[in-house]
Design brief:
Elements lengths: L5 E2 L4 H11 L1 E4 L5 H21 L11 H12 L1 H11 L3 H7 L2 H11 L6 E11 L23 E8 L10 E4 L10 E4 L7 E4 L1 H4 L4 E3 L7 E5 L4 E3 L8 E10 L19 H14 L1
Parallel strand pairs: 1-2
Antiparallel strand pairs: 2-9, 3-11, 4-9, 4-11, 5-8, 5-10, 6-7
Helix pairs in contact: 2-3, 2-4, 2-5, 3-4
């Protein structure tokens, strides 16, 4: 059974050796504690802003904001949770976390690409409610969930609180990155996102491990590593960083176009209403 090691940011050579053999590596103190505290505070205020939009009185104790308040918003209308999700990944404190220079340098080192320009793709704060498996995926690779034919590494880290087996921390199939693109199937499941799942015969070849992590630690892993989230059996929401960094210099990489779908009125509808009012004055 593999003993999962942690490496300092300065221990690049040993971290690279562990990564090449196992398909992942955990870095200690990857994130500035001040940045994590700022993120904690900003997420609190984002949730409070949505409580006001939902006309829910903010009578929560400080520790209830991340759990009970979120549950009440979910019960009121899931759209509030969706809006929180889409707000967090664009907030300044989140940008500061995913833009840590030490993280970018570590990713380039693991890629053997010292000066490669990087493109962050789908960097998000994933929010997993307790006792809810609707967004829990089976064993998968990210190969078909990202920019096709890219050269990239993935990241995963606890945000707000530590991740444990109880709250569904990430699980990895150690060494499975050596499969390359594994045998897998495309599954359309009613009420759930599309799941592209690796065949059990592949997963069973490798040791599987739940990776418990503390705030400040960062898991970096190969895009070919088989992984999945555990089931959150705790009574708390799990907040975790998910994302990936593509090597822009790879010839096949093409930057995706971004599109925004506005909630509420569109800019054109806003324009028409304002201009019409001016005309009527």
């Amino acid at each position: 059974m593999l003993t999962i090691q942690r490496f300092s940011l300065d221990d690049a050579e040993q971290a690279k050796k562990f990564f090449d053999e196992n398909g992942f590596v955990i870095l200690r103190n990857a994130f500035n504690q001040t940045c994590l505290q700022d993120f904690n505070l900003e997420v609190r205020e984002i949730i409070r802003a949505h409580l006001a939009k939902a006309s829910i009185d903010d009578n929560y104790f400080e520790d209830e904001i991340f759990d009970l308040a979120m549950s009440d918003l979910e019960n009121k209308d899931h759209e509030f949770i969706a809006s929180i999700y889409d707000t967090i990944f664009q907030c300044p404190s989140f940008f500061r976390i995913i833009s840590e220079k030490s993280v970018s340098d570590s990713i380039r080192n693991l890629m053997n690409k010292r000066n490669a320009p990087l493109y962050g793709f789908t960097n998000r704060c994933r929010i997993d409610p307790p006792q809810d498996e609707r967004r829990t995926y089976g064993w998968h690779q990210e190969v078909f969930y990202t920019v096709p034919k890219g050269n990239y590494l993935q990241t995963w880290a606890p945000l707000i609180r530590n991740t444990t087996i109880q709250n569904g921390t990430i699980q990895v199939a150690i060494g499975s990155h050596k499969e390359g693109i594994a045998k897998q199937s495309w599954n359309e499941i009613d009420g759930r996102a599309t799941q592209i799942l690796i065949d059990a015969e592949v997963i069973n070849k490798y040791e599987q491990s739940s990776v418990e992590m503390e705030l400040g630690e960062l898991l970096i892993f190969s895009g070919y590593l088989a992984h999945q989230s555990g089931i959150n059996t705790s009574n708390q929401y799990r907040y975790s960083l998910v994302g990936m960094y593509h090597d822009v210099s790879k010839l096949e990489f093409q930057t995706p176009r971004l599109e925004f779908d506005f909630r509420g009125i569109t800019p054109k509808e806003f324009f028409d209403s304002e201009i019409n009012q001016l005309i009527l004055r």
